[in-house]
Each structure stands twice: as structure tokens, then as C-alpha cells.
Design a protein that fits this description.
Blueprint lengths: L1 E5 L4 E7 L5 E7 L6 E2 L12 E2 L1 E5 L8 H11 L4 E2 L4 E2 L4 E3 L14 H9 L17 E2 L9 E2 L2 E7 L5 E7 L5 E3 L6 E3 L1 E2 L5 E2 L26 E8 L3 H18 E2 L9 E10 L5 H24 L1
Parallel strand pairs: 6-9, 18-20
Antiparallel strand pairs: 1-2, 2-6, 3-5, 3-20, 4-9, 7-8, 10-11, 12-13, 13-18, 14-15, 14-19, 16-17
């Protein structure tokens, strides 16, 4: 895992690097305003099954350029799909919108993507770093300030010895709740510091619907990767990405809106040759995703 950011511009890149032979990949897009690349090839039935890295970046559509730097880095260390004449690293990517939090003219580029690879390490820093450097949550209440968010991680090792983990950059238009206790932990704040939750719009104890701020489409987005060391088929990897969105639904309200481009990737390295009930594995994927979202917000408050 590698991360880098421009703190003053409040944007950055998070790269999940796979083993040299790659990992079976899947992808699920539930938000209505995604910014992605190389997601079609992850659909079941398409030729390529293994990917070599996944890029999460700020910068809106501009940030997709970071994946080019990751490709060049992998090519130089001879990682990629062997095409005879050259190796072609398979690097899917998704971006979030942070142009309104820092410098709109400074975005993740190829150089930043390469730097993130060179800084890769096993331990992951959480909070306003990497792709989550400019991330915020709680953007539906007019006159209120969104709360800073960031990148969060979580993992579970199942009884069978299989590990499921997630890393998520949380830039949601909605609010964030602890998935276990239901506690509100990320929302807008009024100028006097009073927290105000958009969730109250459902129950009539928040600003009237005509007072709701409607952010521009695509100006938010939660993106992430859920991964396991178990062996999975491409179809199963796509299902794992699908159910990871259950974790988003447990922790973010509202979620998957027309202003969000919520996208989750799934990776299966196949290092562990163990049998695990797939329902159990999917439940674990949703759980670690939800926990990672809560961790992103809590880490940003420290």
C-alpha cells in the first residue's frame, strides 16, 4: 500500500499494489457520478482476470492520470500482462472530487502516482492522507461546514485463517455513523460548532427540503478496495465488490446518491488455499468496509 499527498492543495493518491503475478479483480459502481478507468475489463466474461494495482485518487477526473505513473512504475520493475513485445500493467482506478477543498488547479498526476508506489509499505496511515487528503462528509445542510474525513482501513481474520481487509477514501455527501453503535461521528457543523445531521430530514427535525444544499453531481464520492488472501473466481470477486457496498450503506446516510460516484474494487490474491463459506466471506467484506469508513472519520478528528 502506498500513499502520497499534497497537503497544501489537499489532494493525493492511494495505491494498492498486488503481487507480481497480480490478483483476481472485481468492481462495483453504485454511485450515479463515478470517475473510473479499466472497470469494464473486470466484468465477468471479459478476457483479463488479474490486475496489478488499484489506484484511488483525488482530483476528480484529472486524478485518473495518477494511474499512468503507477503503470510506468510497474513496467520498470517488470510487472504486467506479458504481451510479448511489452508488459502491460493492468491498473484500474477511481477518483473522488476534492477540487473545492484545496487548490483546484493542483491535482494528482503521473508523478504522484509513481511516488505513491515508491512509498509503499505494509502499515497504512489513516486520516486525511493519500486519496483522502481533501475528503469531507456532511454536505447537505446549507450554511454548515462539512467535516473533514480521510482514508480508513480495517481487517478481519476469519477462523479458517483467511483475512479480509478494506481501505476506503470517504468523501460522501451524506453523514457517517458508527456501524456497530449507530453513533453519529461525521456530519456538517453549524458556524457555532453545533453538529447537524442530514438524517433528520427523514423525520422532520432538520431543515426543510427546500433548504437542502444540492451539491453538483460527482462532487463527492466514496471509493475503496476490499481484499482477501483467499482464492476466488472473477465472478466471486465481483460479488465481493458488490457486497462491500453494504458496508457503505451501514455507515453512510444517505449513500449512493446522484451526487456520489461510489465505487468499490475487490481483489483476491489466492495466497491462502482454504475453504470458506462464501456467504461468510461476503459478510466479512461488508463488515470491514463499514469499519474502515468509521475509522477514516475518527482518524481525521485526531
Amino acid at each position: 500500500m502506498g500513499q502520497t499527498e499534497n497537503a497544501s492543495a489537499r489532494t493525493g493518491v492511494t495505491v494498492v499494489l498486488c503481487r507480481k503475478d497480480g490478483a483476481v479483480g472485481g468492481c462495483s459502481v453504485r454511485g450515479a457520478a463515478p470517475g473510473t478507468r479499466e472497470t469494464d475489463l473486470l466484468r465477468p466474461g471479459n478476457l483479463v482476470e488479474r490486475v496489478h494495482a488499484v489506484v484511488l485518487a483525488g482530483g476528480s477526473a484529472y486524478g485518473l492520470e495518477a494511474a499512468c505513473g503507477v503503470m510506468r512504475y510497474l513496467e520498470q520493475i517488470e510487472v504486467g500482462l506479458d504481451m510479448g513485445e511489452a508488459r502491460v500493467p493492468i491498473v484500474p482506478a477511481a477518483v473522488l472530487y476534492d477540487l473545492n477543498t484545496g487548490s483546484a488547479d493542483i491535482r494528482p498526476d503521473a508523478a504522484m502516482g509513481r511516488t505513491a508506489c515508491m512509498l509503499a509499505q505494509k502499515q497504512v496511515t489513516q486520516g486525511p492522507v493519500g486519496a483522502g487528503c481533501g475528503a469531507t462528509v456532511g454536505k447537505l445542510i446549507p450554511g454548515a461546514q462539512p467535516q473533514q474525513s480521510g482514508v480508513g482501513t480495517a481487517s478481519i481474520t476469519l477462523q479458517e485463517g483467511v483475512t479480509v481487509g478494506a481501505i476506503v477514501a470517504v468523501n460522501a455527501v451524506g453523514d457517517v455513523f458508527d456501524p456497530t453503535t449507530g453513533e453519529l461521528i461525521g456530519c456538517a457543523h453549524m458556524p457555532d460548532g453545533t453538529p447537524i445531521a442530514a438524517d433528520g430530514l427523514l423525520w422532520g427535525n432538520a431543515p426543510a427540503p427546500q433548504q437542502i444544499r444540492i451539491p453538483a453531481p460527482g462532487s463527492n464520492t466514496t471509493i475503496g478496495v476490499v481484499a482477501t488472501d483467499m482464492r476466488l473466481s472473477k465472478e466471486q470477486a465481483n460479488r465481493l465488490a458488490d457486497v462491500a457496498h453494504d458496508g457503505l450503506a451501514r455507515a453512510i446516510r444517505p449513500v449512493h446518491t446522484q451526487m456520489d460516484g461510489d465505487t468499490m474494487f475487490a481483489l483476491a490474491t489466492g495466497q491462502m488455499d482454504r475453504e470458506v463459506n462464501f456467504v461468510k466471506l461476503c459478510a466479512a467484506a461488508a463488515e470491514v468496509t463499514a469499519r474502515a469508513i468509521a475509522n477514516a472519520v475518527r482518524a481525521a478528528r485526531k
